[in-house]
């Protein structure tokens, strides 16, 4: 391994292992407040069209996920507080509990690689244009 690459890998490992680098020590309150500001009224269900999967997702702490259906359509999903959701911000992948990957606040769950489950309790569409404009102002 060449020296610059070795130094980069070492740096990343040090950052990842430091308290500042651990995701569970992050404060999501500011980001969650911003997303909440642009979240609309709750809806019970979101059916994803083809392809039947989310584009991306973002943890907003232990009780919320921002699900990006596309780059211009997102949903704030509030989760029931539970022990299995406490390390949500350390997950690299979430799976919806059904085969079609729809969001359903009536009986939907997110599943994590550690076997944990988080129940969806509220789904709100997000004004993505407003959210992105507010982020640029910062």
Relative helix content: 10-25%
Give the H and E element order: HHEEEEEEEEH
Radius of gyration: 17 Å
Average pLDDT, to the nearest integer? 76
Structural class comes to: alpha+beta
Instruction: Indicate the proportion of strand residues.
Output: 25-35%
Number of helices: 3
Strand order in space, largest sheet? 2-3-4-8-7-5
What distance lies between the first and last C-alpha atoms, to the nearest angstrom?
40 Å
Q: Shape, please?
A: globular
Low-confidence stretches are 2-24
The biggest sheet amounts to: 6 strands, antiparallel
Short description:
The chain is an alpha+beta fold.
Structure description:
This protein has 138 residues and is of the alpha+beta class. The chain has three helices and eight strands, in the order ααββββββββα. The protein has helices at residues 3-17, 29-37, 128-137, and strands at residues 45-46, 56-59, 64-70, 73-79, 94-96, 103-104, 109-112, 117-126. Mean pLDDT is 76; it is low at 2-24.
Give the SSE map.
Layout: H1 3-17, H2 29-37, E1 45-46, E2 56-59, E3 64-70, E4 73-79, E5 94-96, E6 103-104, E7 109-112, E8 117-126, H3 128-137
Antiparallel strand pairs: 1-6, 2-3, 3-4, 4-8, 5-7, 7-8
Entry keywords:
disordered N terminus; 8 strands; globular
């Amino acid at each position: 391994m060449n020296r610059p690459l070795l130094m980069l890998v070492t740096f990343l490992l040090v950052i990842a292992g430091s308290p500042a680098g651990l995701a569970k020590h992050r404060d999501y309150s500011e980001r969650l407040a911003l997303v909440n500001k642009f979240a609309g009224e709750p809806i019970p269900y979101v059916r994803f069209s083809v392809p039947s999967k989310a584009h991306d997702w973002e943890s907003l702490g232990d009780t919320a996920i921002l699900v990006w259906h596309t780059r211009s359509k997102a949903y704030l999903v509030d989760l029931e507080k539970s022990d299995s959701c406490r390390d949500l911000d350390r997950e690299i992948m979430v799976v919806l509990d059904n085969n079609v990957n729809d969001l359903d606040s009536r009986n939907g769950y997110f599943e994590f690689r550690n076997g944990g489950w988080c129940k969806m309790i509220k789904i709100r569409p997000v004004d993505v244009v407003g959210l992105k404009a507010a982020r640029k102002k910062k």
